[in-house]
Amino acid sequence: MTELREQHITREMFECWQQGKMEGQREEEFLRHTGTCTFCAEQFGIWMEENLMEPPAYLKEEITRRTRQIDVQTAVKVKQTSKQMQLMIYSLKVGLAVVASIFLLTVTSSIQNMNMEIPSPKSVTTETHQEKESITDKLNRGSSFVTDALNQMTNGVFR
Fold first, then answer.
1. The pTM is what?
2. How many domains would you assign to the chain?
3. Are 69 and 108 members of one domain?
4. Contact at 8 Å (CB) between 1 and 29?
């Protein structure tokens, strides 16, 4: 198929390819040449457009008649309803987000207005007692401190 490298594709070659009569290597060279040669690519496109079929005359009537049938109209209504439902769900989500934001703003502003006294951790008086204090004692003291602070905060919010 060295002739393709030196010349452009012909109508006969195109028809042979379109009918599926071209064999592997020859078809590969045909398509490669068509892909690299702008003239042949343009000719290929023109020949492909010539073979397009015209739609039958009854097609428009058939489509119009089919769109008037109940099952098609039902499918369209369901699609419209689902779009409306999606809009409603989105609106509810936005509304919920606004309500939650306002709630959080009011709660945090009331917490800022509270007089909170944070209990100070008890100091250990002797050094020997500090050395002997275990990890569990430190954890218990820390958790008590956090619990007391949370209790004071919640008492201030829910008065």
1. 0.33
2. 2
3. yes
4. yes
pLDDT in tens, 92-146: 999 999 999 888 888 777 666 565 555 555 554 544 455 567 778 888 888 888 8
42 and 8 share one domain? yes
Distance, CA of 158 to CA of 114 (rounded, Å): 11
Same domain, residue pair 79 and 96? yes
Q: In this structure, is residue 118 part of a structural domain? A: no
Domain hosting residue 74, numbered range: 59-112
Structure tokens at 122: 């008890």
Distances in Å between the alpha carbon of 148 and those of 40, 42, 116?
Answer: 86, 84, 11
Burial class (CB in 10 A: 0-12, 13-18, 19+), 13: buried
Whether the Cβ atoms of residue 122 and residue 159 lie closer than 8 Å to each other: no
For residue 30 the two structure tokens come to 């045909």
